[in-house]
Amino acid sequence: MIKIVDKVECCGCGSCANACPSRCVKMKEDEEGFLYPIVDDFDKCIRCNICSKVCPVKNLKKEEPFVQKGYLVQHCDEQIRKESTAGGAFTAIAQYVIECGGIVFGAAYDDQLQVVHMAAEDIESLKKFRNSKYVQSNTKYTYREAEQYLKEGRLVCYSGTPCQIEGLKAYLRREYDNLITVDVVCHAVPSPLIWNKYLEMQKEKLGKKIANIRFRDKYYGYKYSAMVITGENNQELYARGVDSDQMLRAFFSNICDRPSCYNCSFKKRYRVSDFTIWDCFTVYNFSKELDDDKGTTRVLIHSSKGQEVFEKIKSRLRYLEVSPEKLTDGVKEMFQSVDMNPKRQQFFSDAKTKSGKELFEEYFPCSMKVVAERFIRVFCAKTGIYSAMKRVYKAIVKK
Ligand SMILES: Cc1cc2nc3c(=O)[nH]c(=O)nc-3n(C[C@H](O)[C@H](O)[C@H](O)COP(=O)(O)OP(=O)(O)OC[C@H]3O[C@@H](n4cnc5c(N)ncnc54)[C@H](O)[C@@H]3O)c2cc1C
Question: What range(s) does the 4Fe-4S ferredoxin-type domain occupy (predicted)?
């Protein structure tokens, strides 16, 4: 039966809990807020060991090269593109699946603003999946649900982080022609406990009910995206960029990620999914026409099934074919795990005793430097010189 000796060995996909025929493997939260499997009823366990056999980390597949296709993509529906993290490629795939009578799984907020995987069966419901949530999503029992639909012959699209897609494939243990999988290039996934600390802080500071949070709102444009919090009636309560929002700063400082993210087994170019999607901030290197600061998705297609779907959705996209080599060149997050922040252990230890406000103010204070950087970034974004200034800055740092 599954036993996690070292936490680095578990990505938290939940494949084991989904697969257990006796329902005795459960995902339980540890003191850092991440889910790990435990066998909660030894009498019920029939020692079939399926839980170990479906673990994508324990049964790591060798990466084999195959033919791929690469594209830069922008959804033609500007509202969809605006609501999406990048160019809205995911929604285009998902719309096609729904129109074929299929069902789509992805990460969304529940009514407590917890990030969980759920299904959507109509076009309107796809909205909840748009925009990346930089928190580990709880897949719950969605692998089982997806399997049920697949067996019924319905078209299913399942999206998630690379470990969640590898987990689903390991759980299913066979190929389905009616399954389309989409993974993202993933920096790392932060702790749901730290997310709750952030929510607690924001609720206290704003003093209003939070209805929605967007990690990657295009408030100041795509290249300088912002955390935006809205209240009832879509009233805007808060907007801060990557330089000053404390959750985004925590995310990019690698202080609160899942232990397995620091040694991720799924950072690679040749993947088990049909599509890999990620950002394209350097769109000017590929096309001047597409460089409109409204968002572009890089799409890497791994299978003929993926290519067939792409042919069907082309009419709703502006796109440019790019060689997979050029598309993936220099994409660190695709190949390299993040480095653990040396303050990680202390951060989690403090999270046990400090309030959300105390924790974030101690580790990510709003110093003069932060205020100045924010002022400069907002000024550059508003005057339309953000991208050019960033390039100049990068060139100086490189020297
Ligand atoms: C945790 C995380 C880290 C990422 N890191 C990077 C990175 O380092 N570099 C980069 O270029 N791109 C990264 N991305 C991908 C990027 O943010 C966009 O998702 C991608 O560019 C697709 O944009 P889109 O406009 O086509 O889709 P969108 O409309 O933004 O669709 C979002 C998709 O992401 C899924 N999703 C959202 N949140 C989660 C979550 N918490 N867990 C699992 N799935 C989720 C949804 O189900 C949906 O399929 C990351 C995404 C996530 C979720």
Answer: 1-30, 35-65
Tell me the pLDDT tens digit for each residue of 324-344.
999 999 999 999 999 999 999
Number of CB atoms found within 10 A of residue 354's CB: 16
pLDDT in tens, 303-325: 999 999 999 999 999 999 999 99
Rounded CA-CA distance 232/32 in Å is 31
For ligand 1, the distance from its centroid to the CA atom of residue 132, given in whole angstroms, is 4
279 DSSP β-pair partners: 297
Contacts of 126 (CB under 8 A, 6+ apart): 91, 94, 95, 98, 104, 120
Contact between residue 280 and residue 298 where contact means Cβ atoms under 8 Å apart: yes
Distance CA 155, CA 308 (A): 14
Beta bridge partners of 301: 69, 275
Per-residue pLDDT tens over the stretch 354-381:
999 999 999 999 999 988 888 898 888 8
Atom from ligand 1 closest to the CA of residue 105: 47
pLDDT tens column, 257-272: 999 999 999 999 999 9
Ligand 1, atom 18: nearest CA belongs to which residue? 278
Mind listing the domains of the chain with CATH numbers? 7-53 (3.30.70), 69-190+257-335 (no CATH), 192-255+337-398 (no CATH)
DSSP state for residue 322 in the 8-state scheme: E
- Look at the alpha carbons of 57, 58, 59, 64 in this order and tell me if their dihedral is positive or negative: positive
Atom number in ligand 1 closest to CA 86: 25
